[in-house]
Amino acid sequence: MAITADDVSLEDIIPISLDFVVVEVSSPEELAVVGGDTRVRVSFQEEELELRLPFGSHSRLFLSEVNRAWSDVCKSPTQIPRFEWLNKYHKATRGQGVVRIAPLSATITKLSQHRKTEKSSDKKGNLEREKGSNSGTQKSKTYPSPESQGISSREDRDDLVRSSSHTPSNKAQILAMPQFGLRDNLIKCELLKNEDLYTYLEDFSFFLGTYNVNGQTPKESLHPWLSCTPYPPDMYCVGFQELDLSKEAFFFNDTPKELEWTKAVSEALHPDAKYALVKLVRLVGIMLIFYVKKEHAEFISDVEAETVGTGIMGRMGNKGAVAIRFRFHNSDICVVNSHLAAHIEEYERRNQDYKDICGRLQFRQLDATQPPLTIMKHDVIFWIGDLNYRISELDVDNVKELISKKDFETLHNYDQLKRQIDEDAVFVGFVEGDIDFQPTYKYDTGSDKWDTSEKCRVPAWCDRILWRGKNIKQHHYQSHMALKTSDHKPVSSLLVTGIKRVNSEAYKKTFEEIVRNIDKMENECIPSVTLAKREFHFKDVKYMQHQAETLSLFNDGQVPCQFEFIQKPNELTYCKPWLTANPPKGFIAQGGSVEIELEVFVNRSTAPDLNSGKEQIEDILVLHLERGKDYFISVTGNYLPSCYGTSIRALCHMREPIQDMPQETLRELAEMSANENTVNTEKPLDIPKELWMMVDHLFRNAIKQEDIFQQPGLRSEFADIRDCLDTGMPDSLPGSNHSVAEALLLFLDALPEPVVPFSFYQQCLEICSNASQCEKVISMLPQCHQNVFNYLAAFLRELLKNSSSNRLDVNILATIFASLLLKSPTKQDLAEKRKTQEFFQHFLTQGST
């Protein structure tokens, strides 16, 4: 998790005044390595402090803000700063002591990070700072080895992993970075349009590797895999899946195997070149490492890394993707490493995972005014990983016979990924090379023998490498049978890619011509646009069901224009929380057009007020043109109330499906739930009927279901289950057991007031180790909440009686359900999460009542 304000205490303060100076002191050797920390010296009167800032956009933003503040001081040197914002720090914060405000003449900044779950500092290090060669130590600088430096916790590295890099060429301007305005965007747009005038292509080789290591530690050299090319590649992008299968890795995203496999990779890179580690990103067991030849390091910039989980409830990181994007010379490149849903029949779930990753994985840009970049907004995309697509319609004997004949072409016709690509269901626009190697899954660990276990899996090409972009040639695509650590074989591909390089003289000439033309345009014209439509209606909006309408803008003026949706008076954002405009701001060339997606999506935070009728699907968007006028866009719609996002108490007073209830009744029930003293004469149900339907379905059909509550369902089936609960039709729940299980978790997650109400949360933490006190707290809950808690606990105990079949245990269920039943009214830290799990475990043991 990232460092938050709660993790930091303010001890001393240094004012930014005329006596203040900040200069960069990084050595030339440090500047030469991508990912190196930025060192700056802060001076104030007689005091000096050297700061080491992790590379990335956070550091650049911080330094630009410092520079901006210093510039403001210089503009008004006689004005005495009052520092009124410091007043709020005079009080103690979260038990971490009182902030000490020293006299301004003697203050110096010190930020102390107090980690709640911090390990001893001598065991901490940071892998991001390991920029040494794989073949030895540089003469100019000694880089700590993994053994001596150790590795940081995930919390320590998160801010690094989600940041941007900078190169020597842009570090010089780090303290004076202007925000992009209209003129900057005009120039940028024209430069992109005329890119062919000042760029040329040069080939660089990218080694892509993927390996599902099945939770194993490195037992053999990776040299046969990573050094299989005759010449050293320019870049390495190495992906792993199932790095660690332990529960600790799954629930707390912490594993020692990250360091072990990273060390194994660094030792196996091609011996004829020296490489710098640019970036490492990991989500549970999915890890991606990016190395570059040291001579290319200075041309790497704008490095960002992101992750997205597609596991249960769309959040758990046992399945999902990690990605790194960067700019190399003048080309934008994105590398994705994914692990998609398992099991031969789940190809639709794999398709859904792919679409989720493409839609949800976004990289922030250095210019905060620009919308985030999606995967597809890159010149080149490399996609690697255990995609888990299987071979279907052939039994295991037929598959093995084709393999023995090396008839891979015939076998490939039965490959699910090939069929889904042919149907344009996934990976549209991507290319995969010809497969002339045998399937990479599943082998007996430590051998080349096909799976001899009871399940006897059908061999499959689970591990794949695809690409999208122009000027890419594949030089090899192969598996590596020599490695026997896992039940998968690693796969590699060498892709030679044409990268756009800049001709400096041509660039200067093009830039100057663009500036002259823009100067002329700015003096002549006022921007204007035509809107194809100004009123949008969204019909039958449902909980967690995306709807979108397209707003088309055409630039009918004589000059390029910049647009932005702006806030209305007394409102914090430009739109209601259930509505987004994508993109919310942008640039339109003269005679050009842009399509803006107006998207409506109701989630757990917006559903309660829409269910009760307190809020409606109604909003007005204000579209502003810089140097032009404002346009008003009306958004309306009707929302279909749902049991998702409705309180337990209100649901217990509904004997009919929620969509059969009058709106006025829903409003009254919501007000009754908010006021505990309100008396309703009608006897309520013991538990919500919707909850009973889901639990009863699972009790009858899924008590022995393997991986229940651990494997996600299908989104289309969740929609059917939600509609059934909200309308009462059909009589029984549709969908697979996994979809019903996920629907139950989503129901609990959406409750406005959790099963254990917020007012009891702190008390539960305090007595979590005392079983009798825990039971006493539950007995004090409002009756409907108490009934739900006991009903769910009894159901989960029944599941545990069948653990040999469903592979559940107390720790797994406590981790999943405690976070839903006992929610913090504020942000929950790791220590609190462990206490909630300890509290709930008392109710899962056999002796519980």
From TrEMBL:
GO terms for cellular component: cytosol; early endosome membrane; phagocytic vesicle membrane. GO terms for molecular function: inositol-1,4,5-trisphosphate 5-phosphatase activity; phosphatidylinositol-4,5-bisphosphate 5-phosphatase activity. It is an enzyme of class 3 (hydrolase). This is phosphoinositide 5-phosphatase. The keyword Acetylation does not apply. The keyword RNA-binding does not apply. CDD domains: INPP5c_INPP5B, RhoGAP_OCRL1. One of its GO terms (biological process) is phosphatidylinositol dephosphorylation.
